[in-house]
Amino acid sequence: MSAPAQNVFRRLFDEIGPVDQVGIEERVAKYTTRSIKKNSKLWGLKAAVSMVDLTTLEGKDTPGKVASLCQKALRPHEDPTIPQVAAVCVYPAMVKHARRALGEDTAVRIASVATAFPSGQAPLRTRLAEVKAAVADGADEIDMVINRGAFLSGEFGEMQDEIAAVVQACGASTLKVILEVSELETYDNIRAASFLAMRVIRPGDFIKTSTGKTTLNATLGNNQVMLEAIRDFYLDTGIPIAMKPAGGIRTAKQALQFLIAVKETLGDEWLNNTRYRFGASSLLNDLLRQLEKERTGAYQAPYYFSEAAESY
Amino acid sequence: MPTLTSIKKRPASRHLGRPTPELIFGDLWEFDPAPETADPRLKARYDLFIGGKFVAPSSGKYFDSINPANETKLAEIAHANAADVDAAYAAAKKAFDTTWGKMPGRERAKYLYRLARLLQDRAREFAVAETLDGGKPIKESRDFDVPMAAAHFFYHAGWADKLDYVAPGRSVAPLGVVGQVIPWNFPLLMLAWKIAPALAMGNTVVLKPAETTSVTALKFAELIQDAGLPPGVVNFVTGFGDTGAAVMGHPTAAKVAFTGSTEVGKIIMRSLAGTDKKMTMELGGKAANIVFDDAPIDQAVEGIINGIFFNQGHVCCAGSRLLVHEPIAERFLAKLKTRIKTLRVGDPIDKNTDIGAINSKEQLATITRLVGVGVKEGAVMFQPACKLPAKGYYFRPTVFSGVSMSHRVAREEIFGPVLSVLTFRTLDEAVEKANNTAYGLSAGVWTDKGSRILKMSTELKAGVVWANTYNKFDPTSPFGGYKESGFGREGGRQGLLDYCKLV
């Protein structure tokens, strides 16, 4: 790393403040000791269902697979009190198939990973073309990856310019900026990258933890760092940024812990699917299983629930 | 019930027209009650524990132990008089002379291990009893008090057969019978801190728990019976100040150990002046938590919260004075208030409660009085608008800002959930303010700069200095004070040395 790059990191850390790893991990451990029972559990589970971006991101995805995912998104369970999920999340080539399956008049949104997901290692014009194509095919939301190489080498301007270019390419579609936290490695870097991204995106756009394609994805720790960055940015500027942890959240219990973090860090205004999402697939069936357990008093066998995608 | 919000028509810039953005910590997702349901297995009436048996007090008098969370009677506790204390010391002396004092360390270790394991086996039951008796949140008694008490017995069990190595080049011998008086803030844990090193070293014990929190000590007496300790090795005499004075002043005691207020500590020291009794005093504190402008702010806020609101602030090492670097003072205070709004004050037996009940009516009155003084002296008070239960002794977490060193809330130990915020400009000023107190038990330093931590830990006159954390305890780490916070150490090798003579 060259000397000027160190200086830019130093300046940014000085401006936004450091994160203490031990301290933040102690903080989030307290979320896991909260005890959510009865009606509060039902509320949390249903809120979590409504926040799921039901995801399939595999080389073997087909129009048929995407159609069945869309069906699950529209009607996760026969119980009519269980809400629809927030969105389906697919590769750009699958957007038009998802649009056909969901129709035009639906509350379930189509999110598409674009910008040479997951590495982002394609020329900018290629990445922008991919975004525009996905939007043209009907994507309501674009999940982009940041240029981690630019960030780590201290080229913050380049990283931010690219995000700004994707914002332009999105048009009216919502943008989610994936930081890919496992490649940033430290909480300080995650906080820094959150701020850089938030400064160039629009109110209501998201920052997102990870692609789900690396070893370490969303954890309560990196979720907390990003929630605190969103809070600080909101209190300074009034601009509300939304949050999406993705990958690694497989159980209803985990999802409730993430929601407790939201409740205690950002408050009530972030406890809805315009401000908070879960990038997940197997999570949905565990949420449904817990909801059925609350309703019937017994755990149902897995084969009572339709199969979900298994990419995260 | 959440509903899917249509976000297609999201307003482009909701923030416009909102002059000061605020976070809303409301009741959108209210948690249902989640009480811990384990049975505390309490008896209606507890006698004294002398010579391995529960015996009625010679006066026949009992007093009520109250659950501070709802002001109901929990159990009746025996009131020991001087004759009962005599009997306890006689039993302890006999045990020291005939069994415990002669027993090889490796045999004593077996008993200590057994006590630790029995406590772990019944951890949930003890946690519930501790919470009902003292008002502390169940998550603290479950995750801190009981496991830490067991850890102290494990640690000292490990020492019992290695005492030849505790003072290199010297041999150690037990003192005899030790008298111990413990406070009401960590009843079971303070019992463990006192008993475990004394027993490991081969001493026998007469211990008086605090009058508001005797229940877990008497439940622990059941464990002592279950563990098969020789009769008289540990004796519990319950009661008020008169009982405590009899325990401290008894001629049989070779050493006395006291944890409690500086005021009472001074009385004890005066009364024992001229005797050859060894003493350990763990007294009050008014710790400074010092935050520099380069500190990790959110983690520092969390540490300050933990430092002052842990156990409702009933902690002798509570970080009751926040010294914050002027450039960040305003921002820090705002963050602190935001975090306090999310604390859950209420029934201590609820697993989600962060701040429980004040230990007694008397303590609530003391806190209320001192907070009144703070307001009268012109400090700016902040309290969150949380609901408090209708019955029981509760006090809202309180922050005083605009405090100077001459305010009483900055000088006196309040022993409640009350934080005084002061500012400083330079490191020297921070050190001077932190040390400008009669106490010297603990301090906290929050900074990203390692060299500053080392400098501060040298200059702060406090027995413990925590860096970028607070209220961390471990059986291996000695704990104790400077100045009017007392003398002697508890925990670690140093703590053991206070329970032996070098021969």
Question: Can you characterise this structure?
Answer:
The complex is a heterodimer of chains A (312) and B (503). Chain A is of the alpha/beta class and 312 residues long. Chain A has one domain: Aldolase class I (TIM Barrel). Chain A has helices spanning 3-16, 21-31, 38-50, 63-74, 95-102, 124-137, 148-152, 156-170, 181-184, 187-198, 220-237, 252-265, 282-296, and strands spanning 52-55, 87-90, 109-113, 141-145, 174-178, 206-208, 242-244, 278-280. Chain A has an eight-stranded parallel β-sheet. In chain A, helix 1 (3-16) packs across helix 10 (187-198), helix 2 crosses helix 11 and helix 6 (124-137) packs parallel to helix 8 (156-170). Chain B is α/β, with parallel strands linked by helices and 503 residues long. Chain B folds into two domains: 45-283 and 482-502, Aldehyde Dehydrogenase, Chain A, domain 1, CATH 3.40.605.10; 288-467, Aldehyde Dehydrogenase, Chain A, domain 2, CATH 3.40.309. In chain B, helix 13 links the parallel strand 17 and strand 18. In chain B, the strands form five sheets. Chain B has a seven-stranded mixed β-sheet with strand order 14-15-16-13-12-17-18, with helices on both faces. Chain B starts with 44 loop residues before the first strand and ends with a strand. At the A-B interface, helix 2, helix 3, helix 11 and helix 12 of A face helix 9 of B.
